[in-house]
Each structure stands twice: as C-alpha cells, then as structure tokens.
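Hi all, long-time lurker, first post. I run a small reading group and we've been trying to get comfortable going from sequence to structure in the token notation. Rather than ask abstract questions, I figured I'd post a concrete chain and ask someone more experienced to write out its structure so we can walk through it together at our next meeting. Sequence below, copied exactly:
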Amino acid sequence: MTFERLEKNICDNIYEAQLKLGYDQRPMSLNYTNATLCHLIGINDTAQLSQLLESFADSVAQKLGSLSFRSTHNGFCITIPAEGTAYVSEHSSGNEFMAKLVEAVRGHADTETILGIFKEASANVSVTELNNEEFRYLVFFPDMTPDEYYYCISEEEEMDGHIHASYHRFIREDYEELGF
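-- Answer (accepted) --
Happy to help. Here is the structure in token form:
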C-alpha cells in the first residue's frame, strides 16, 4: 500500500482540468469509484478505505492543503482546496505531452494528429485499433513515460464533415475492468 499513485492521479486530473478550463484559483472536486481508489492505493478491500483516505489527506496536507471527502454511491468525492489547486498549477509545467494533447483536441484535430502527439512524446507507444462502438484506438506508453494512462481515442464527425478526435483517459486497471 502506498499513496504516491493516488497523489499523482489527483494532481494529473487537476492539471488536465486546468488545461481544459483554465486555472481559476478555486477548489476542485474529483469523483473516484471505490475500485479506482483501491487500485491507486494498492489494496483489495474497501473496508479500510475511509480510514486510508484520512491518512492520505494527512500525508499530502503540506502540498494540497486540507482535503475533504464525501461518500458517494460506490465511491468518494475528494475536494482539493484552492491552495492545492494552486500547488498543482505552480508545479505541473513540465508535462508538455498533456498540454499538447489538450490543445490539439480543443482545436478539433484529426486522429492522425492526435496519434502524432503520442509518437512525438515517446518512441515507445502502443497503438491498438479497437473499432468498437465507443472507441477507435487504445494508446498508451508501455514504459509509462511520459505517463501511465490508457487513452481511448474516439472520432466524431463535425457538421462540416470533418472528423475530429477526442480521448478518454483511464488507469490501466479501470480500462481492463471496463472490458473495451
């Protein structure tokens, strides 16, 4: 059991939201399922989850401030105070891959452009064509550089007939459990 992966995931999600929406110096709430929290902490039993989240909050208080937790259906809503979102804003500038990906999707880039951003970020990229009802590709970095996430790329046709790509990001365990 360790809290590093949960801390990184929270910071990554805050940073991604700040790239998409802008940094507004306010608190942010993130919803996590119990299963995802167990995967990120490295435990199998949800019985200890509330207690472990309190221990996690203590371990990150200096960086992220005083986190609060609210139980939801099959999970928790974690609220990070403004000082925590400020910490992420100040310490996340090195993730050029995510910034380029968000900017390309915002600009309605096509799939080849999106895949090019992954290939530019690393020579070690796994691209699998899924062509299921939800997604066209699964893309991830086997060596976890620049990150550990599984990206499911989908394509949507715009009103002008152009195809643009979007993505959904998962931790490996959640992707595998969803069974795409």
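A couple of things your group might point at:
The longest helix spans residues 4-21.
The first strand starts at residue 28 and ends at 33.
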